[in-house]
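FAQ: What does a ligand-bound record look like?

Like this one, built around coenzyme A:
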Amino acid sequence: MKIQLCEVTNETVRAVCALEVRDDQKGYVAANALSIAQAHFEPTAVFRAIHLGEHPIGFVQWRSAETPGTATLWRFMIDRAHQGARHGRAALDLALQHMKSSGFETVETSVVLGPSSPLEFYLAQGFVELGRTTPGGEWLLSRPL
Ligand SMILES: CC(C)(COP(=O)(O)OP(=O)(O)OC[C@H]1O[C@@H](n2cnc3c(N)ncnc32)[C@H](O)[C@@H]1OP(=O)(O)O)[C@@H](O)C(=O)NCCC(=O)NCCS
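The answer part, i.e. the structure of the complex:
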């Protein structure tokens, strides 16, 4: 079955908000309901459900960074039941293509460090460490699009 990025609809919003990461990952990404709520107060935010076939299995959200031409990957998760099947990698590729076709040249993100950190996942997808943290203490990463 194919991974696709789909708009969140009245039919899928409950399922998207019910998606969950593993308990040990809960400090690493916000709940999807909070992300969708925040997107409504951030004019440049774009969010999509990650579908496997017809079913939502994840969520991704980005916005413009302060630096022109740079997108910030703000939220990204794959439901605990669907992790480890290379869906995250496929969905990230689609999100990066979307950002590139919207005119962005660079993407940055930030991760919480720790035992369940997605740092290694991002490094394997071409991100590099910037050697500094956000004001909130998250470790910054970036890659060209
Ligand atoms: C990070 C996340 C999206 C990855 O999704 P996934 O579908 O499990 O990842 P994939 O199966 O596509 O993994 C791709 C590769 O990265 C590796 N990988 C995935 N998560 C990893 C992790 N936390 N640490 C190290 N490697 C990891 C996989 O082993 C795989 O390697 P391979 O290609 O050599 O087999 C998922 O683990 C998640 O939702 N984590 C919790 C939320 C989070 O931290 N989000 C990012 C912060 S915004």
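Follow-up question: can I read anything off the structure? Yes, for example: The domain at 3-144 is CATH 3.40.630.30 (Aminopeptidase).
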